[in-house]
Every structure is written in C-alpha cells, then in structure tokens.
Records
---
Amino acid sequence: MEKEKGEEKKRFLLKTEPSEWSWEDQAANGGISKWDGVKNKQAQKYLKSMSLNDLCFFYHSGPKARRVMGVVSVVREWYAEGDGGAVDVKAVGEMRRPVDLKEMKADPHLKDFTLFRQPRLSVVPLSLHIWNKISALGGGYHGDALD
C-alpha cells in the first residue's frame, strides 16, 4: 500500500533501552523487528497512527547513552499482539554520527521538541523541521539521499 500522491510520510522517534534492544540488535536481526511492549496509551496512539514506510529515529534511552543511533521504517502497521499491539520496523541505516540528547537540548531550533516536554514517552511524533534538524546534527544516515 503506497502513500497517496501528496500524502507525506510521518516521522517518529522510538526509544529503547540498549540493554533490552540496541541498534546493534536491530541491525543483526536482518534489520526487521517487532516494536512492542509499549504500555503508555499516548505512545500506543502514536504507534497506531504509523503507516507503511513512515520513518523513525532509533533512540537509545537509559542512564549511559541517550542518543539517536539510526533510522528504521515501518514495514507492518499496527497489529494486535498479546495484551497490546506492535508495528514491525526495518533498519534503514545508522546515523553517520550518533546525536546525543545533550546536543539536541543545546540546539535552539529544537526547543519545542516533544521529547523534552514528555521525556517518559517511548514513541514521539516528529515534525519535518525537527527530523531534518536532528538528521543534520548527525550528518544524515546511511541510506539517505546523501549516500
């Protein structure tokens, strides 16, 4: 199911603890994984709103490394799974340089980023402006138009 002409891809940030599921796990898993375990109702709403080919930053949370590591795309939309649901995502490419949370917070162009206002949310929608700014901070990602 392709996007209708004029319909934009949506963009999100997906947070994971690297000890639970890391970028290395994602890449080593054939690049495809089920994104599940989201309990927060607001975060589930965002997962449910995802469409095929939407793009997501893969973000390591936790005490040691809070940073954007790479980009994944949605390859299967929301489906029921256990007590909740999931989407399937596929690795697109690693950031050319990981983008640390401190670096994002220091950028005045990102002052309205939802991640800063709702830091416990595990799925965060992104505007194209925020997406482009974070991409630029990391020098883009492997698989983007810069390759």
Note: The CA atoms of residues 73 and 80 lie 19 Å apart.
---
Amino acid sequence: MSVSVQDLNIEQLSQVKKQLDEELSHLTTSFAQLKGAQAKFKACLENVAEVKPANKDKTILVPLTNSLYVPGKLSDLDSVIVDVGTGYYVKKSRAEATKHYQAKVDFVKTNLDTLQDTIQKKQDNLNMLLQIMQSKMAAGQGQGQQRG
C-alpha cells in the first residue's frame, strides 16, 4: 500500500523531510569519500608514469606511509609494488599497474555517476516535499485568517 505525500499532514511531512535530509547527508558524505578514492587512484597512475628510464638512479622520495617519505633511488624500472587493498602488496609490471589503477579509476567513476544520479533524485524529492509543505502551511494560514 502506498500513500501519496499530498495526503500527509505537516507533522508527517516533516518526518519525511528529516529522513530525506539524513539520506542526502549520508549520500553526499559517500560521494566525497569516493572522490577522495578516485583522486588517490589517479595519483597512483601519475606515480607509475614517473617510473621511466629518465629517472633511473635519480634520488626520489619513497612513501612509507601517507606522511612519511624517505630518500631512495629507482633501480628497477620494469616493476612496481601495487597496493591491492587490506595491507596486501603485489609486484606488477608498469603496464599491469597502470591497467590496475585505471580500472580502479573507471570503477569509482561509474559509482560516482550512479551516486550523483541518486543524490539528484533525492534532492528533487526534497524540493517537491518542501513545495507541498509550503502550500499546506499557506492553506492552513488562509483558513485561519478566514475564521478570524
């Protein structure tokens, strides 16, 4: 059984609005986190691209953690270590690493597009709900003035 939002009173509409606000907040937080993940994968792609013959034996900063870097030199230009998640690292060729990170970027982009559509639909629903609430409040005030 479905109920039209037109049939709800102001208090019920307020509850629906609160739920939509919470959903939108959660979705926009998820969107921001996915954008961060996408940026990380793109940075990984750029880093793999920097492993090239021109940089052999040059001193570079090697990341040990997100905030700790140590000086090092590129000695193996054919392979890189790829973080495949949950603390596991795999040695891959530069081409395999590029393919891996590009697939991650594409996957996250697909999810971002889907999430953006969902956020837009929720936002449209919220706007419609606010219009209904405003018209019901205006109608309620109009009835109050007619009685007075």
Note: The chain is about 65% helix and 15% strand.
---
Amino acid sequence: MATAVRSQARKQPHHFREIVINGRIPSETRSELVKDTLKFLLFHREQIPLPYEQLKRYFDKQQNIKKGSEAVKLSNLLDAVQDLCVNLDDLFRAEVPVESLLILLGPTVATPKEIYRIEFSNQVTMGPLSRVPSTKMCSRLLHKSLVTFNPIFDLKPPSVTSLHILFQGQRSESNSWFQPKHNFKVPKRGQYFTFQILSSVGRVEGLDAGMEEAEMDCGHQLRAMDARGDISGHLQRDSPIWFAAPKPLKGVKDTVLSIPKQGEMWVQ
C-alpha cells in the first residue's frame, strides 16, 4: 500500500490545452507561435521583469548601460532571445518537419521545474490549397488561449533559472545551430504542460485520391524494404531525436525597472 502511495506521489502532473486554428498553418506562422510562447513564458514565469517587447523598447532608448549592473544582464538576455528567434525562423524557413518542441524551465535539461511542449498536429494532411489564416490572427488566438489557461497562473513561478528549448527532428537532419542530443529523454519530473496547435481543416477536396495513391505506394515500398531487410537500417537513420539550442537563456531578476503588478496581463 505504501509503495502504491509513493508511486502515485511521483506521478507527473500534466496539463493539456488544445488550440484549434481553422486552416493550414504555414512554417513562418509556426515559427511566430513558438516565439510568442517563448516570450510569454519568459515574462509570466517571472524570468524577465517586463513583457519582452516592452523590455526591448526600454533598452532601445538607453544610451549608456552601467557595466556590471543587472541592466547589462537583461540586455544580454534580450540579445540571446533575439539570436534564438532568428535561428527558429531559419529552422522553420528550411521546411524542417518540426512537429514537437520543448521549452524547459530549470537548471538543466534533465532537471526542469516546468516542461512546456508545443505540438503542431494535422499539418501533414493539409493540402496546399487549404485556407491560410493570417499570422496575426493565429498569434491572437494563441495569446487568448495562454492567458486563459489557469494551470499556468495557479502554479507559483520558479525562482530565476535557465530556459532551454529543444525540437524533435529526424536523426538525419542537419542543422548548424541546434545541436543533437542523442541520449535526451523527456524528464518525468516537474509540471508538464502540452499546447497542441491543431489545424481543423482536413485534406483538400480533389487531392484525396492522389494522396491516398501516394500512401499506397509508400506502403508498397516499406513492405519491399522489409522483405529485403533494409527497413531497420532506414528507420534507425531517420528515427526522431531531440535537438537543443547551444546555450540556455538565463533569467534575470531586476530590481531597478518598474515591474507590472501581478494581475497585469500581456496580450498583443
């Protein structure tokens, strides 16, 4: 009985939020949604004292920043966020099939306090002629979903810590900035949040037959590879692994800037 109680106590809390977007989400919009989530978490999990865009405008107006001050750390953090955003844009622009990303808050990728998983579902089946909503509309829908997601705000923010971002891609994927983490496994401890961004429209009428035929051809090819004994090697080369940004973002607790009240929300 005691063993069962201990096992239950170790169970990882998991909070799920589905965000449905009517239409196909192009790669550049997916990149914006990831960046929006990143900036949202930096502020609302109290790793920066002001919303990112507001903080950036503040520093853009500063002429001289005293060396060794907390302001220097904040300025460096903003530069690191900008660098990460540029590389996220490059990643999605290269049409890398990214269906799952992780944002980890904690000292290391193995010991996060909070885990945020972003999943893009039903993207493969979307035809090229599907409705494409604007990036701005998708961002507004995301922010509305985030600021009304009570489990995030019910959880006490962690102390200033590191933020790590990883994406899951094919083993054969080559990327000069994100680094492969061959042995990484999603930690089983910490608060776990999943944001599933789902395209609500299925295949485009008139393209179904061609796609079904392509799927049948793919099935025949896989069976032929299996018969030759090639499939295990193929799957090993293309099995998904996690890729991580080279450096984590380190939060900064600034005591000089005017920090918004706890109840103030950041909605674009």
Note: The chain has a mean pLDDT of 80.
